[in-house]
Every structure is written in structure tokens, then in C-alpha cells.
Write a structure and sequence with these properties.
This protein has 16 helices and twelve strands. The chain is an alpha/beta fold and about 375 residues long. The strands form two sheets. It has a nine-stranded mixed beta sheet, with helices on both faces. The chain has a three-stranded antiparallel beta sheet with strand order 10-12-11.
Length: about 375
């Protein structure tokens, strides 16, 4: 597999102490090519703001590049692709999240920027009810040609993946470790099956163990890649609650399947609904309406308010809506090269001033 020449240096730089995902992203967006960093003097490196607080000796240490070369050899041998946040095929939804990984390793046949992506997550201790509901949800996704994203864990995640394979949906698992292994091992066969229409994706290099602290990081990728997260069953302290909270912070729609008040596996879902962080899920029509999958058009046109003090960003948003008509948050982020967190504040201000209408599916249009 042919990989861009700069991949070696991107991998090496991502392993340097003090360079987290935000600094790495900033360096890639600023310089595009990072090979020169490994040839610059220490004085020149100290002048680069993103390298403040970074152990620069690691950049000069030959072992850093040697480790990156090992990774690159493994990637080529195993037909793994590497995409950086500045590449066109990087997941566009995830790209708009401020803590998105600068590099992703992926294996399989996946299309990361299709029209519809849904995450299904839930407890590892799935009940018969949870498995039944998961099967129904996945089956109902098929007419919409929605891709399924989850974490390949035992329980609801794995059951969602199995059903997505059965219904031939694009089926993507985000892993909390390197692509040199599958965890849990019981899902190795399922993972192999998924490579034909979907596959495996991770921000971690090989030799990375599935440590406990990696799973919340994995969950942010799951939440960032999709239009909505559906929580099927979860205890109040479950990992699925972390995914739901992250999705909520990313301004993604969160749905929760209600359950019995006495059922521990439903307490998390019921709490999400009660706290209005999730929409109650009763069937595919809920997705259709809230995500704007119906072809409805708000034909009511209202007079725009005049003489409102707007920021330059808000003026840009209005001009974009005037040009494009009804568009979603991801499209606005792409055109204005800004994050969803920052733009949502300006969109809210425009809504308060009666200049724009908020529609299902986080879509916007001029009033």
C-alpha cells in the first residue's frame, strides 16, 4: 500500500512526549508537512509555539524514527491505511471536534463520509430485551442506508455489529488499542467479517494495550464520527454514559431506549431521558424526524430582523445560509473552518435574534 512520504514523520511526531492531539493537529494544519521538524536545530524548534513544553530531545532521538519505521512496516504488511486530519478522507464529522485525533489507523473497506452514521452503544451485560431492541434498531436502519459505528465490546456493541453485518450495513468498530490485535478476542471472527464492508479504526499504534484509560478516548471517536448515538441499555456508571455525555457535548443527537424503573441496565437510559440529554427512542421514526431524514421543507418565510449587532462570524453564517439554503452544522463548520463548539454559540445568538431557524437534525436555515 502506497502511503504519503510524510507519514513516517507524522507517526514519529505523534509519539513525542508533550505533543497531544491538539498540538499535533495544529502542527499539521500549520505546516502540512512535518518532516522538516526532524532536521531543524533545537533553537529553531523552540521558536515554534506548538512545541512549547515538548521534550525536543525526543525529536532528535533516532529511536523515535526507528519506532515510526517499525509501525510503517507493519501498516504496509497488514494493508492498514493512515489518514491525518488534513486529509480529504478524514471523517468530516469527527474533524469538527476540537479533540479529534490527528492520526487515525484504519483497516478494511470503509467510507467515512457517507450521508448517515449512527452509533449504537450499551452495556456489556445485555439482557434479552436489550438484544431484541438492538436487532430491531439495526434492521430499521437498513432502509436509510445508515452506517453503524460502535466499540466491538461484549454485549450491546458486539450484538449491534453482528446485526449490521447480517443486514449488510457499513459496519465500523472503533478500538481502544492498536490494530495488531482484537479485543475481546472472542470477536476476532466478527472483526474479520467486518473488513469487507466497514472495518476497524483506531488512533493507537501497535503494541498499545487495551488499557482502562483508553476506552473513554475511544468513545469520543465513536461519538464524533456519527450523526447520533443510541444508548440501548446502560447502568448509571456505564461506559455508554460517557459516550452519551461526549456526544451531547459535540452537539450530536442522543437517543436512549427506555426501560423498567427497577432494571439496573435501564437506569442510565432513563436518567438520560429524565435529564433531557437524550430523546426517548421508540422506533426509526424518531431518527427520521429528529435527524431530518424526512424530505420536509419549512415553507414559512419570516422577515429578518434589522439593525442587530452581529459578529463577523455571525455575518458569515448568514451569508452562507443565504447562499446554500438549509444546511447542517457539519457543513457550516466545513465552510467556515471552525469547530462545532464555537459555531454553536454564534448559531444560538442568531436564533435568539430571530434570524435563523433550527430544524431537526441540527440543520439551519434563514427565517
Amino acid at each position: 500500500m502506497e502511503l504519503p512520504n510524510d507519514r513516517l514523520y507524522q507517526i514519529a511526531l505523534s509519539q513525542v512526549s508533550g505533543i497531544g492531539v491538539r498540538k499535533m493537529r495544529s502542527l499539521l494544519e500549520r505546516f502540512n508537512q512535518v518532516e522538516f521538524l526532524f532536521h531543524e536545530s533545537l533553537d529553531a524548534l523552540r521558536a515554534i509555539p506548538e512545541l512549547s513544553g515538548v521534550d525536543l530531545s525526543e525529536i532528535k532521538n533516532k529511536s523515535t524514527l526507528l519506532r515510526a519505521e517499525q509501525e510503517l512496516n507493519f501498516v504496509r504488511d497488514e494493508a492498514i491505511d493512515i489518514i491525518s486530519i488534513i486529509d480529504q478522507d478524514y471523517p468530516k464529522r469527527l474533524k469538527h471536534c476540537s479533540d479529534a485525533p490527528a492520526l487515525l489507523f484504519k483497516k478494511g473497506n470503509m467510507r467515512l463520509n457517507e450521508e448517515r452514521f449512527i452509533a449504537i452503544v450499551g452495556t456489556r451485560r445485555a439482557t434479552h430485551y436489550g438484544r431484541e431492541i438492538t436487532e430491531q434498531i439495526v434492521e430499521q436502519l437498513k432502509p436509510y442506508n445508515a452506517a453503524l459505528v460502535s466499540g466491538l465490546a461484549i454485549g450491546i456493541d458486539g450484538f449491534a455489529h453482528k446485526n449490521a453485518s447480517y443486514h449488510k450495513l457499513q459496519n465500523i468498530a472503533v478500538l481502544a488499542h492498536g490494530l495488531d490485535r482484537v479485543y475481546p478476542a472472542a470477536h476476532s471472527g466478527l472483526a474479520a467479517e467486518m473488513l469487507q464492508n466497514g472495518g476497524l479504526i483506531s488512533e493507537y499504534m501497535t503494541q498499545t494495550e487495551p488499557d482502562r484509560n483508553h476506552f473513554p478516548d475511544r468513545n469520543r471517536i465513536v461519538a464524533g464520527m456519527v450523526d447520533a448515538v443510541i444508548v440501548v441499555e446502560s447502568r448509571i456508571q456505564g461506559g455508554s454514559m460517557i459516550t452519551a455525555e461526549i456526544a451531547h457535548s459535540y452537539f450530536r443527537d442522543v437517543f436512549a431506549v427506555p426501560g423498567k424503573l427497577t432494571d439496573q441496565n435501564s437506569k442510565g437510559c432513563n436518567l438520560l431521558i429524565k435529564s433531557q440529554k437524550a430523546i426517548i427512542y421508540t422506533g426509526a421514526k424518531d431518527l427520521e424526524y429528529n435527524l431530518g431524514w424526512t424530505k420536509t421543507k419549512n415553507a414559512i418565510s419570516k422577515q429578518r430582523q434589522l439593525f442587530v449587532d452581529l459578529s463577523p462570524i455571525e455575518e458569515s453564517i448568514l451569508n452562507l445560509l443565504k447562499e446554500k439554503g438549509r444546511i447542517d452544522l457539519d457543513t457550516i463548520c466545513t465552510h467556515l473552518s471552525d469547530t462545532s463548539q464555537n459555531l454553536s454559540m454564534h448559531l444560538f445568538n442568531l436564533e435568539l435574534n430571530g434570524l435563523i431557524a433550527v430544524l431537526p437534525g441540527k440543520q439551519y436555515e434563514l427565517k
